[in-house]
Amino acid sequence: MNEALTQPLNLTATTVGIFCVFIFVLAYALVMAEEFTLLRKSKPVIIAAGVIWAAIAWVYQQHPGMEAMPERVLRHNLLEYTELMLFLLVAMTYINAMQERNIFEALRSKLVNAGFGFRALFWITGILAFFISPLADNLTTALLMCAVVMAVGGDNNRFVLLGCINIVVAANAGGAFSPFGDITTLMVWQKGIVAFEGFLVLFVPSVVNYLVPAALMHFAVPDQKPEVDGQPVFIKRGARRIVLLFLATIVSAICFHSFLHLPPVIGMLTGLGYLKVFGYYLKITHGKRSIVNGMDTAQSEVGDVVPFDVFKSVARAEWDTLLFFYGVVLCVGGLGFLGYLAMASELMYSQWGATYANVSVGVLSAIIDNIPVMFAVLTMLPDMSQGQWLLVTLTAGVGGSLLSIGSAAGVALMGQARGQYTFFGHLKWTPAIALGYAASIAVHFWINAGLFV
Predict the structure, then answer these.
(1) What is the pTM of this model?
(2) Are the beta carbons of 167 and 149 closer than 8 angstroms?
(3) Over the stretch 123-134, which tens digit does the pLDDT of each residue have?
(4) Where along the chain do its domains lie?
(5) Residue 126's closest CA among 181, 176, 164, 159?
């Protein structure tokens, strides 16, 4: 077979390539303007994805023997999206199930009735996000803690906004030093470039990345206390067991990947099966009475008036966010197929040097997406020291915090806290986050200097 027919065309300097870049920029401009246009963010990127791939396919139809190449690449992109979408769907379903069982409302009640003010709650949720994300991944952690912030903050939009920004920064920082905390870290680990324990040297830089903006935002958090209603909140039957099943689901995803070398999403979907079977148990035993220590359990479960329905939790998933990811994955995949990502990586590592390139990767990941950017870097496989590979892992992981659309955690929270956590609300605090970004890089160079040899 002619080798030229197996390599994609470089369309970066063609009219079609420039047209696709324009479509992508236009779509992202509409995403950023969602706060003002009220146009859901998934709509422009879905259309842009279709237009970009249609333009690519049209060009390849003009080259005999290459007509099928766009289809093969597109199917690969669809597989990447499917894994991401199903992973998110399971996480969202569990979160919705826990919300339906009053878990977050009960946690909110305990925090409020304990006398914590908004500033204390700001730090509690941020610290929890930082230490949970290395195990539960930054996206799942952000969704969990955002539900708590929204339940505690209520109509206090300022606290909810700052709390969500704090959670995004903390979750992304916490995920940077663990292969299970961030997809980009996982990609570097899977490639065999850095050993699992090698990422732990990024712990201190990650802490700095979180603490600097959090300390600056602290003074903007309302110095008030949430209203104390004094009314206890009862969790519904099975709530604690659903939490345990969610933990078992996370463990399943880790084990499927680490020991069986299967995609983590298979473990997540297996975990969805746990929830469905338990939901069946809750449904067939709903309303049955039993006496435990002299107490009528059916009467004690306040508010549990309808049986649990797992499909309602699935239906309540943030579908706009899931479809937004579809558009982003396909748009960026199309631009990569056109040759733009490889061109950018070649320019950065060949002309700028590893340090400037790796710092720029973090900034670029805030604008596009860290996954395709890191994929391009790993495809180029530049000759770098261990310290530089850890640097690009750090910057790709935490750089997405600079913008709300720069990470999966930020995009998901824009959907979950729609109207309270917005692109422009986050943008106002980008300078503080950038200061933490720069400080974490400086700390990495300082404490890990021996790895740059």
Answers:
(1) 0.75
(2) yes
(3) 998 998 999 888
(4) 85-182+233-315
(5) 164
